[in-house]
Specification:
Blueprint (H helix, E strand, L loop, with lengths): L1 E7 L5 H13 L13 E6 L15 H13 L3 E5 L8 H10 L2 H8 L2 E2 L5 E5 L8 E5 H4 L3 E11 L3 E3 L1 H4 L8 H8 L3 H15 L3 E11 L7 E11 L2 H11 L8 H8 L9 E5 L2 H4 L14 H5 L5 H10 L2 E4 L9 H5 L5 E4 L2 E4 L9 H5 L5 E4 L2 H6 L1
The structure holds iron/sulfur cluster (2 copies).
One iron/sulfur cluster binds next to α14.
Length: about 375
């Protein structure tokens, strides 16, 4: 059985978070099990973009501070790191650390922030879909990784948790290349699993105190969940997290594919430690509206020509709200196939080129990109 600990945590007050994080790790054997004196430990947070902690798009700084405190108590040296969306430069990192509250807790608690923006090529012979990876050099310069994810919905993958968080070890705009190479959700999910099996985090922790529902991972709504979860197995942690918010694990492609690799995809294979998942369970957690599909797949296999034809013609597409758009061009710059161009200062998508990765929605600072299916499809459905 895989083990996942779940501990109530009602708010982000420093002491409450520290007590809950501490208990969640204690239930797994304590931080000394994962960190030896002198070890450099990379705390891989979710720092998607410049967002304030209360927007619930990024790992809350108090969670990172609590984990860092426990790493220090075990004699290790914690380093907060991520490669956010967009350019991976020291200047961009500084802006993200500041906005996400990491700069403040780093200075309060004397925690190192990573500013190494170099990349290295590594081979991963056991990878199913990628045998060579371009990753942040900082990862190679530390002795262990603790994965600190945020529980959120996601336009492409439906759910983003422990496994998807590790996509952030791919530096900056190289992520766009990976999107281009792995356009199908199934391939993209396999690629995420390859990255996760390469990184092999010693421990994964989920910030589910306040998660994000609806149009995640950045344009959704904060939703109080009230829990912190932890596991040595990031696949099991994701299964426990989706079960907590009422998403069927087999709706999430990374979980389905993890099951096919024997990495854990079923809550029955998990021993839950700590507080009761059933008592903490969230009802009516909103998933992205365009993910309410199931309809096509009821009649045709998802790989069939007809399902692919319907999805190509009537699949979810990005729609821009020009009233809220400030013309910053972040969507244009980060669109992997360069399907977006600007006309009169506003983005326009060439749907023939669009690969439906939804990076434009993910990285729009104004939350002005919505993912919608065509009206014809909705009427038919
Ligand atoms: S990222 Fe958002 S605000 Fe910026 S140009 Fe694109 S749609 Fe407009
Ligand atoms: S337009 Fe948006 S969804 Fe389409 S490929 Fe570009 S970033 Fe991805």
């Amino acid at each position: 059985m895989e083990r996942v600990s779940i501990v109530k945590c009602n708010d982000y007050k420093t002491q409450h978070v520290f007590d809950s994080v501490s208990r969640s790790i204690e239930l797994l054997g304590g931080m000394n099990r994962f960190v030896q004196p002198g070890m450099k430990v990379l705390l891989k947070c979710n720092l998607l973009m410049r967002k304030k902690p209360e927007e619930a798009a990024t790992t809350h700084p108090e969670i990172a501070a609590a984990v860092a405190g426990l790493v220090k108590e075990a004699g290790g040296i914690p380093i907060i790191a991520d490669s956010p969306g967009g350019l991976f430069t020291q200047r961009a990192l500084r802006g993200v650390y500041r906005a996400c509250g990491m700069e403040a807790i780093a200075s309060r608690d004397q925690i190192e922030l990573n500013y190494n923006v170099d990349a290295v090529e590594k081979s991963h012979p056991e990878g199913k879909i990628i045998k060579n990876l371009t990753i942040m050099k900082a990862l190679e310069e530390t002795d262990a990784v603790i994965n600190i994810a945020k529980l959120k919905t996601h336009g492409m993958t439906l759910f983003t948790g422990a496994v998807k968080n590790l996509f952030g070890v791919i530096p900056g705009t190289t992520k766009a290349e990976y999107h281009l190479r792995m356009k199908r959700l199934e391939d993209f999910s396999d690629m995420l699993l390859d990255i996760s099996t390469y990184v092999k985090p010693a421990l994964s922790i989920m910030d589910a105190v306040i998660g994000m529902e609806g149009q995640g991972p950045s344009a959704g709504d904060p939703r109080k969940i009230g829990a912190i979860l932890a596991s040595t197995n990031p696949y099991a942690l994701d299964v426990a997290c989706v079960s907590l918010v009422g998403i069927a694990p087999d709706m999430v492609c990374t979980i389905k594919r993890a099951g096919e690799r024997g990495l854990c995809s079923d809550i029955k294979d998990i021993a839950l430690l700590g507080d009761s998942l059933d008592e903490l369970k969230i009802h009516n957690f909103k998933i992205p509206s365009h993910k309410h599909v199931g309809f096509i797949e009821q009649f045709f296999s998802e790989d069939s020509f007809i399902a692919r034809f319907i999805n190509n013609r009537f699949g979810p597409m990005p729609v821009f709200d020009y009233q809220g758009c400030i013309g910053c061009r972040d969507c244009e710059k980060n669109c992997p196939p360069k399907a977006i161009s600007m006309a009169d200062g506003k983005p326009v998508v060439n749907m023939k080129k669009c690969i439906r990765c939804y990076c434009c929605q993910e990285l729009c600072p104004q939350k002005t990109v919505r993912i919608r299916r065509s009206r014809l499809f909705e009427i038919f459905r």
